[in-house]
Design brief:
The protein is mainly alpha-helical. It has helices at residues 8-24, 31-46, 58-72, 96-107, 112-118, 120-136, 169-175, 177-195, 197-200, 206-211, 222-228, 268-274, 281-293, 295-304, 311-327, 347-351; strands at 54-57, 76-78, 81-85, 144-145, 148-149, 162-165, 244-248, 263-267, 278-279, 331-335, 338-341. A hairpin with a 2-residue loop joins strand 4 (144-145) and strand 5 (148-149).
């Protein structure tokens, strides 16, 4: 059976329904925000642009929950110092998922990757516990808006360990991912701010704590990238100096993931000029070639250093991002201040 792509009218309706869900839905905990965020992330990682339905397991959703809440389960810093305060994410007692993750953080020194690699049994147990909460709490209640059901994402069967995103839903999540992520995270920040108002006062950097990346951690990637890139900048191919920077090849602002294979080492001028633009085709080819040529070395050294890495996920995200840029006739960065429209030939880089 073939599935037609959603029409422009259907895509607009999807966005309107998403807006309704976030503004009118009954939220007693932040779980619903996390659930929509997880569905959008998984649509990027596991879906395609065909308009097909997408089956997702609740365990995959639970694993995404752990990743989203991992950072948020740490004590919130005030004035650069740890306040000891773990932010409230529920209108009643602390959200069960936060409590479970906080326990795991204490045991594994705050490193999610170390937990996954060093104790796979503990990781499976944690995901299983979160899976139970997801299936009990938000999964079958997400699409309740006011006193009506708004089943535009998946059929609300009320039980089971799988859901199937309806035809066109994965396509819309992928097409409007950045917009949807901004909507979700903005609503999530306001929800947490309201719950913790008496403790936080007028804190302005709450969004950075909940969803920002930790730039200080990137230096750990530097010696590994220096070796696999043979001491040259990925973008200009000239020898690197002390003024080099670790850069997200697919910008963090486009898809927030700190994965070792997505990082490159670049001159500070190249990195600053590229900014949040997608890199042009020749840079894409260079990035893919580096990851193919040094696949085993990168994996071994990243894992040995307890640094997050996932080559498959990195490539899936890159392919999705270039697909979306081509569809929107977007521009990519070539060098210095030079931009150009993405050439459809970019897809051949992934076919090599």
């Amino acid at each position: 059976m073939t599935w037609a792509l959603p029409t422009p009218e259907e895509q607009v309706l999807f966005l309107r329904n998403m807006q309704r869900l976030l503004s009118e839905g009954l939220f007693v905990a932040s779980y619903k925000f996390a659930l929509v965020h997880a569905l959008a992330d998984l649509a990027v990682l596991k879906g395609d642009d065909s308009g097909l339905p997408l089956e997702l397991s609740t365990k995959d959703i639970a694993a995404k929950f752990v990743e989203l809440y991992w950072r948020q389960s740490r004590p919130f810093p005030v004035g650069g110092q740890s306040s000891g305060l773990i932010l409230q994410q529920n209108t009643g007692k602390q959200a069960a998922i936060i409590a479970k993750i906080a326990e795991s953080q204490q045991e594994f020194g705050g490193s999610l990757f170390r937990l996954k690699q060093g104790s796979p049994d503990h990781w499976r147990d944690l995901v299983a516990e979160v899976d139970t909460v997801v299936r009990t709490m938000p999964l079958w209640k997400l699409q309740t808006v006011g006193n009506e059901s708004l089943e535009f994402l998946y059929e609300n069967v009320g039980k089971g360990t799988k859901i199937t995103l309806k035809p066109g839903v994965s396509y819309c999540f992928r097409s409007f991912y950045e917009l949807i992520r901004d909507l979700i995270e903005g609503a999530w920040v306001r929800f947490v701010q309201k719950l913790n108002a008496n403790k936080l006062g007028n804190i302005t950097d709450l969004g950075s704590f909940l969803f920002g990346n930790e730039r200080a951690c990137l230096d750990a990637y530097r010696p590994i990238l220096m070796d696999v890139q043979k001491g040259t900048c990925l973008y200009c191919q000239k020898s690197l100096t002390q003024q080099s920077q670790v850069d997200h090849f697919i910008p963090w602002s486009r898809f927030p993931a700190d994965l070792g294979h997505n990082f490159v080492l670049a001159h500070d001028k190249c990195n600053n000029a590229k900014s949040d633009f997608l890199a042009a085709e020749r840079h894409l080819e260079g990035w893919l070639d580096r990851n193919r040529e040094h696949k085993d070395e990168l994996q071994e050294r990243l894992v040995a250093s307890a640094l997050p890495c996932d080559l498959y996920a990195s490539i899936q995200v890159a392919k999705w991002m270039y697909q979306q840029t081509e569809k929107s006739n977007g521009q990519v960065w070539v060098m210095e201040k030079v931009l150009k429209h993405l050439d459809p030939a970019w897809a051949k880089c992934f076919a090599a």
